[in-house]
Amino acid sequence: MSNNTANMKVVEGSYAVAHAVMCCRPDVISAYPITPQTHIVENLSQMVANGELDSEFLTVDSEFSALSVLVGVCAAGGRGYSSTTSQGLALMYEVLYNVSGLRMPLVMNVANRAMGAPLNIWNDQQDSIGARDVGWIQIYAENVQEAVDATLQAYKIAEDREIRTPVMVCMDGFVLTHVYEPVELLDKEKAREFLPDFKPEHILDPARPMTFGAFADPSTYTEFRYQQFEAQLKALSKIEEVARQFEESFGRYYGGLLDGYFLDDAEIVIVTLGSVVGTVKDAIDAMRSEGKKVGLLKIRSYRPFPVQALRKALKDAAVIAVMEKDVAIGGEAGLVTDLKAAFYSSSRTPIIGFAAGLGGRDITIKDIRKIVEKAEAARKGDLSEFEFLALRKEIL
Amino acid sequence: MDNSLLAPGHRACAGCAMPTTIRLVLDAAGPNTIVVSPTGCLEVTTTPFPESAWCVPWLHSLFENQSAVASGVEVMLKRRGKDTNVVIIGGDGSTFDIGMGSNSGMFERGHKVLYVCYDNEAYMNTGVQRSGSTPFCVHTTTTPYGSQSQGNPRPKKDMPAIALAHRVPYVATASVAYPVDLRRKVKRALEINGPSYIQVNAPCITGWTFDAGTMIELARLAVESGLWPLLEYEKGELVGVKKIRRPKPVEEYLKLQGRYKHLFKKPECADMLSQIKDMAEANMAKYGLVD
Where in chain A is the domain with CATH 3.40.50.970? Predict the structure, then answer.
C-alpha cells in the first residue's frame, strides 16, 4: 500500500468505484438497479447528468438487457460498463457465456450478495462463485481502495489483445459498497495514461463486413473453448504484470493473483477472499501474540485460478483452512473444491473447508479462532472436511 | 437481385420464404446496413462457422436479446457519428415471445432501429412448436390435432398492436408475395427517426407443409383471404391499407397447407373453420380491405 495520504478522501465505496469507472471512460454504461449495486450506477448517472463523464447511460428493462446492450456496444467498437449482483447476475447468466465466447472485453463490478430463496439482500459470494465457469476473469477486492484500483486494472487486462476476456471485479455488497472509508480516488490523467482508448481489431463496419456470432459445430466448437481457456492461462501473468504497472503509476500493490499475511512461517493457513480478509488479519494478529503460527492467504484472482502460485505459497503449510461465503449445495463450496483439486497431485496437506457468512451473517474473530481450532484438530488427524461455520443448530 | 447482400449457398430449405424476404429487405436497405439477428432458422442457415452468407456486417448474440444488442449498436454508432442503418431480422419466436422484454425496452427507449420479423407462425428451427404467433387451430408439434384437440386453441398475438402501444412511429405488415410493397415499407421505415416494426408473412415449407413451388401463391392467398391484411401505421395512425381486388375464400388458403389439414377431414372442426372465416371477415370490415 502507498503511504501517500494527502489525496485521501472519505467517500462511500460505491462513489469511489463509480469515480474509478469514470476514469476508465466507458462509451456506454448500461445497468439495471438492484440492491446493493444501486449507488454505483446512481453515481454514474449523476456524473453523466453533470457532464463530468462523457458516456451514454442506458436505462434498460433488465440485467439481461443491460449486459446484452454492451454486446452491441462492444461489437460496434465501444468500451462498455455494467454493474450488478445476485439475482441480477443470475438473470445475466446466458449473456455472461455469450460475452466471454464472443471475446468481448467488458468489465462489470459485482456487488456480491446472497441468492434467493429465501430472499436475502445481504452480502455473501454465492452469486459470483456460482458463475465461476462462465469464462470471465474474477478479481476479488478486500477493501474499497482495492475495488477502485482493480476496476481500472480490469479494463487493461480485459482489452489486452492476448487476453480479450471480460472481467468481474467482485466487491462485497454493503460491506464495501456502502461503507465510508478513506480512499485515494484515481487521478483522471494518470488513468488515461495507464488505460489508453479502446481500439478493437474487429468491429461492425459496412466498409469491411464481418459476421459476429456464427455458430460452431462439433468440428470447431472445442477449439473456441480451448482458445478461451488458453487466454485465461495467459491472464495469470497479465494480471500480475498489470498489478505491477499499476504500482509504478499509482504506488499501490496488493499482490497480483494472491497475497499473504504472516505466510512465511505459518503452520495453519486460512485461505479466503473478499472483505473478510480484514477480520482474518485482526484474528491473526491476536493469535500471533499468543504464539500461534497462523497465516492468511488471500485469493485476488479466483478465475483464472492461480494453481501454481497457490502451490508455491502454501507449500510449507501443515493445514490449509478455507473459509468462503458460498456453498455448492450437494457438494462442498467453490474455493475449497478448487484448492483440493489443485493440491491433490502435489501435496498431502490436509485441506478443510468452511461455509461462512452466508446471507450477510457476520464472521467474528471468535469464528476464525474456531476455524483454527478445527485446523489444529485436523493436524492431529481429526479431519472435518467441510462444515457450516457458526451454524445455529437451535433453530433447525 | 444478382448483387444480393445475402449470398447464395445458404442452407435454408427449398421453398422457404425467409431468404427471399431477407434479400428483399437488404435490397431496400442497401450496403450501409448492420444486421442483428437472434437465434433461429436465419442464424443457423446463414452462418455455419467458418462460412457466412452475409455481405453486410452481421451480429448474433442470443435468442432473446436482439433488441438490446441492436440498441447498443445504435447508441455506439451514433456516438461515433456514423449514419448506418441498424436492422434487426428475427423470427416470430424471438419477436413475439422470448425477446418481448428487450423488444419493449428498445421500443420504449426510441432507438433508431428497424425491426423486421419474418413471421412463419411457430418455432420452426426447433421443429414446429407453437409460438405466440401461431394462428387459431394450427397443428404444431406442441398443439397437435387429436381426439381432444383441434390444434392451437388461441388466436395469434397482435404484435403490431403491441408495437403501436409503445408509440413506435412506424409499424407495418408486409408479405413476401408483395415485394414492391415490402421494399417500399423498408425504405420508409429507415427514414423514420426512431424505432420501426415490419412484420412479414413468411411461409415455412416444413412447418406449414405445402408444395415448394406454391410458396408465393400461398403468401398471396393469406393476403387475399383477409387473414393477413397489409397495413401501414405512422405515428399511430393507419395510413396505408392494401386493397384486395379479388378476395378469396379462406379455404383456398387453408387447404394448401398440411397444418390445417384436420379442419377439412374432421366434422367436429367445421365450427373452427367458420371461426377462421369470421376472423377474415372481421379484418375485411375493420380495415376496409375490399372496395
Answer: 8-250
**What would the pLDDT profile of B31-86 be if each residue is shown by its tens digit?**
999 999 999 999 999 999 999 999 999 999 999 999 999 999 999 999 999 999 99
Asked if A366 and A335 touch (Cβ cutoff 8 Å), the reply is no
Residue B52 in contact with partner chain A when CB distance is under 8 A: yes
Determine the Cα angle at A253 with ends A250 and A254, to 5°.
145
Q: Decide if A171 touches B, using CB distance below 8 A.
A: no
ipTM confidence: 0.96
Three cell numbers, residue A43 = 453515481
Assigned CATH for A8-250: 3.40.50.970
Name the residue among A155, A178, A64, A169 with its Cα closest to residue A110. A169
Which residues on chain A are in Cβ contact (under 8 Å) with B43?
A: 213, 215
3-class secondary structure per residue, B1-56: CCCCCECCCCCCCCCCHHHHHHHHHHHHHCCCEEEEECCCHHHHHHCECCCCCECC
**B47 CB within 8 Å of a chain A CB:** yes
| Best CATH choice for the domain A258-395 from the list 3.40.50.300, 3.90.550.10, 3.90.1150.10, 3.40.50.920 | 3.40.50.920
Q: Report the residue of chain A nearest B30, measured CA to CA.
A: A206
Question: CB-based contact (8 Å) between A68 and chain B?
Answer: yes
Nearest one of A322, A334, A285, A353 to A112, comparing CA atoms: A334
pLDDT band at A1 (very low <50, low <70, confident <90, very high): very low
Question: Using CA atoms, how far apart are residues A150 and A139, in angstroms rounded to an integer?
Answer: 7
pTM (predicted TM-score): 0.97
B33 contacts A206? CB cut-off 8 A: yes
Residue with cell 429487405: B25
Q: Which residue in B31, B102, B104 is closest to A206 by CB distance?
A: B31
Burial readout A197-235 (b: 16 or more C-beta within 10 A, e: otherwise): ebebeebbebeebbbbbbebeeeeeeeeeeebeebbebb
Q: What percent of chain B has pLDDT over 90?
A: 96
* Residue-range domains of chain B with CATH: 17-287 (3.40.50.970)
**Residues of each domain in chain A carrying CATH 3.40.50.920:** 258-395
Write down the mean pLDDT value for chain A: 97
- A68–B79 CB contact, under 8 Å: no
